[in-house]
Design a protein that fits this description.
This protein is of the alpha/beta class. It has ten helices and eight strands. α8 links the parallel β7 and β8. α3 packs parallel to α10, α4 packs parallel to α7 and α7 runs parallel beside α8.
Amino acid sequence: MKMKIFLVLIFFSLLIFISYIQNSKKDINYTILGDKDIFSNNIISKNFSDLIFDELSSIKEFGFYSKDFISDDIRIIDLINNIKENKKKNNITIQNILSRTNLLILGIGNNEISYKISKLDINENNDNIIYKYLDQILLDIQNLIEIINKYDIDNIIFLSYYNDTGNKDNDKYYKYINKEIEKIMKKNDIYFVNLFNILNKNEDYLTNSNFVYITNDGNLAIFNKIYSKIDNLYLHKKN
């Protein structure tokens, strides 16, 4: 008898949990994951991700904005492990956030690519080493997307890579990996934002210094690109 009561309690608890997840996903639950550098910039007051929040928060269906799991110097493999191990931060787990998210922006990998390239002397013809490394990054991205897809998130936006090394000779590496990433995202029905085409093709969008940052104009350009897609693919469905 006690066992039957226990099973009934478990059954209803599961129903309540499933109902909670379904109802929470009716809201606009907005999450960013990845490199802190891409989502926060120390030379301007607001980054594109916060500008998106400003717009979304004025809508009655808005639920939450989570940036709990952006980190400094995080690699793609680190994010994969964080999800698998269900990392906890600010009293919430990453799996919990992903299960309730229906608008996700992924921006990860730029730092590790730029670091790898900067450690090699391009004058020594290290193309084979770099391209082999980029192919490994692509495998990591594919693995990450497979894991993310398990959470059935309505809309995912992937931010590709821009050349922040200050050396235009490195453009070929970013063009190569972006082209391959675009194929992965298209296959997985994920919106692909090519940051190289936005930032590296306009001299006003990146600072010209030893440390390359996205300028205010650059952030606005990214915001306009992303938010127009959010508006077309997601917000109009609410109306």
